[in-house]
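Example 412.
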Amino acid sequence: MGAIIIIMHEFPRDFFWGAATSAYQVEGGNSFSDWWEYELAGKLKYHSGQAARHYDLYEQDFDLAKELNHNCHRLSIEWGRIEQKEGVFSDQELEHYKKVILALKKRGLEPIVTLHHFTNPIWFSKLGGWSSRGAAKYFLRYAAKVVEALAGDVHFWVTINEPMVYLYHSYFLGVWPPQEKSLIKTELAKKNLLRAHIKAYALIKSIYKNNNLSSPMISIAQNMQAFVPCKPTLRNKLVANLRARSFNLEFIERSIAAKALDFIGVNYYSRSVVELQGWGVRNFAMDVCDGKHSNLKKNSLGWDIYPEGLFSILISLKKYKLSVFILENGICTEDDSLRWDFIQEHLKNLSRAMNSGVKVLGYIYWSLIDNFEWDKGFGPRFGLIDIDYNTYKRTVRESARKLAKVCWEGKL
Ligand code: BGC
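Predicted structure in complex with beta-D-glucopyranose:
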């Protein structure tokens, strides 16, 4: 009789387990943000409205996160709330976020706080947004206010969420505010985002130092895709490689070169199958194959489920000799058993990478609750917790309970 080999995946005792949200996607009522203005002007198909009403119901949501054995939680601060008018900061909103952070700490959840997650105050976008000269200066003034208010209770900061995804949708494809389709503006905004991160890094460190607080851990959340060539032609392989370098690694490498990265924040969802169809800049940046021949399972937005991509990405980060933190990994689906398969397979690949020497601080699932999926509206369901958008009732999904067991036992 052949022996059945069961491979156990064990995670360190001090591993962080949690889930993420972003302010605009869950809070509701973010009427001072550029997205809101575009939604009301009919420039976007869906209206975020009350989102998941997390602004009022955060305690309920954190109770559930605690019940699910999470020991950390990633959230973002809505710049438009804090600075509704240029240079005027709302003490009341700063106080709100302080309460949110304390609500997490009270439940034993380590807060991981993002300063910019795709949205901007309306006044900032009117002044030209991220492609304008003063962008980093405004961001830093806001960052200083927030960090001064929260420093005592926060150890992990994420300055910018997914700079490349933001640039791609907002400045290159023109689907997200400010709906630009300009290579020049994409480049300008990219420079400003990088400058904003590097300067914010130094600023945050100095605020902690001046207040005699122990040095915080600061990074960006970098969306990384597994770029694989479709037909393995030389040019597809070349472009897959180039895209990985620019999309996945450029911000990371430049931040490391500027000594402005304490760990590598990774958001991983899927792969991108490269199939070059021409020689223009847009071909280089965007061409993918239609994927019809792919037999991989997909999420409800049609993205390939490709857990081994997480392994190869993590291995490719080893050379930087920095710890990695998975700040987002998740699936939108109507089929909750597929969600559990997705989580399990990604955790197995994570564990394999850790056994191969990659130091990983934690795993954060996207998302804690169903939410407003940007230009795709409320259809895609990423949450560990279901939201009924008529009653705002929260219902924990089965996959969340299974993950809770892993968080508790530290093994899979
Ligand atoms: C973003 C989230 C988004 C998720 C799923 C990430 O790129 O940070 O805001 O909801 O992916 O698309």
